[in-house]
Amino acid sequence: MAGRDITEGDDGVYAAFDGDGISEVARGIADIGIVSSTSTWQNTDVAYDVAVGGLPFIYAINDARPYIRQTAPFRKDQFDNGTEPGEQSLTGWWIRSQMSFHSGSGIKFYDPATTDENGHYRFADSKGVNVWTKGQATLLKNVTAGHITTGPVATNGVTQQQMRSIKWSTFTGALLHDEYDVDKIKVTDPSNPVHFIDYNAGVGVYPVYAICDDGTNAYWVTNKTSGGTTKLTVYGKPLTGDSTSTADEFKIFDNSDIITNAVIEYVKQRLVICADNKVYECATAVASTPTLLYTNPSTGHIYTSVTASGPAIYISGYNGSQSTIEKYTISSNGSMPILTSAVVAAEMPVGEIIHKIYCYFNYMMIGTNKGIRVAIVNDQDGSIKYGPLIVQTSQPCYDFAARDHFVWCATSVAGEPGLIRIDLENDLDELRFAYANDIYYDGITGHVTTAVCFDGNTDPATTDRLMFCTAYASSANGAVYTEDSSTLRTTGYLTTGNIRYGTLEPKNFKRLLGRGDFTYGSMTLETVDKDGIEYDHISYDSVIPAIEVGTERPSTAQEYVAYKFILYSDATDVTKGPIFKGYQAKATIATPRQRIVRFPVYCFDVETDRFNTVVGYEGRAFNRIQLLEDIEQTGDVLIWQDLTTGESRQAVIEQVTFTRMTPPDKRFDGFGGVLEITIRTV
Prior knowledge:
By secondary structure, the protein is an all-beta fold.
């Protein structure tokens, strides 16, 4: 609302002095403003110069008390607690950089100052890129499709493929179980397998439900017609054999059961067989007598996996929407206990189904329909404690393979057949480890990755090669995929977390530099905005060096952006490609600038404007000081008006300083001095 001038009555009488110093009685004008955050002032009888929250004043500007107007500080102080010193304390540009990506993917925002140390080396997503060497990212090996697979995922959710690393004669590769048959896949010739078991040729035969090996022999479970009777049978055969060498096939045991699901594993020098809802233990010798260890009270219970670590053997399974891990603690004489009720070592959240458990060192990998978890295994009592989902996958995780401190997980890569790699030496939190997409085969969708293994080569001088397979789906066969020995992928990418510099304020992202060696292949730099739109900036190669470039797009200020780095292999030598070693991005704050205005004003009981109009009353100065301090105390936004220029802005009071210039002496009338008011526009 508008303020107003009021001509006072008797209370407005004050003592005035003319030029000869003789006191005269005059009737004055008093200003009575209504002060609030929305108040404005409109001059009437008195020509005031400035108003704050509807409270008017006359400027007291001179050489000693200037009017000062300047830009308010707008740069966010950046505290440097990173491993790349100095970046946060540099003046001018806001800078963000990364020198390594070995802590894996999965972050949404890259704010290293507010995350753990490992967060400084994480990124959002990658495909086709190896990030596990500290300080660099390179293209992964290519993958070649070979032998087809015909077994679908069973109606009970169990896969009908298994892969095991084997070595036979002079060959290395994988033992592939695929529904009715088992093949030996040579890593050097994956398209021409050696048939190990071929049940497809017969009439009225049953599938191989599960298979394992002890390094010398393979063992499998089936319903075999023997003497006109269909029954559960466990067989064995040397890995050197094939489907034509039936004479070396031997029976471990059989019984009268007819099964629909089975799991078998060679652990702690024995065979553990789960056939439907029953758990058996037996030796690997011919005509062994099995020991029935446990019968699950639910005939519909589905056992899915067997593994061992420390003092115990573990078996996973599920019934309906509930999944558990059973524990069988080995006694001092080496035997497994016979149970009347299961000893449950772990119980999963309802709806999360375990498909695979795999012990490696003192960890247990748990693959479920939701993703991947890691558990720690107590080497004293065999108890387990599992952590959160490391990564939620688009398909169930069905299998694991391990080398060194890495574990590869059979699951898809962006809907295509492939693997995820986990680094067990890089723990981000309790039982949470670094992960990233690994090798994959592009151009195929709709097929789940069901199994993974290495090529069986145990020579440390030779690089291990991964092999994985997919299931039959949608009237199309799956396939076995083999990692190439030296050929790199044609392309791959890495996308950083969204960079926002720890603030939600808009930024102008203006400069980008990629670091690395681009002697072979090339790398394209892109900006990705909040809507996922990608903007190309430059491609480095052997001709165009790694130079800093302007990132003019997106053209408008952004709360955050990400950067995408696309790597391409060499066009001449497919075994070589670029080496990406990091990046540096530069931005400036785009927040609208605020002003600091500092101005002096008179604050006396009686004052005279520029036209010699007198205004005031006794006590006026102190009343106005109190009103102004009350406004300041609330910290509210108010209207600041410069009545000399017509400018009106929203502002807050930063500081009020009063300097009294009238001594408390009988020789002087009134109270007053100069107020110095500092405001900040908003």
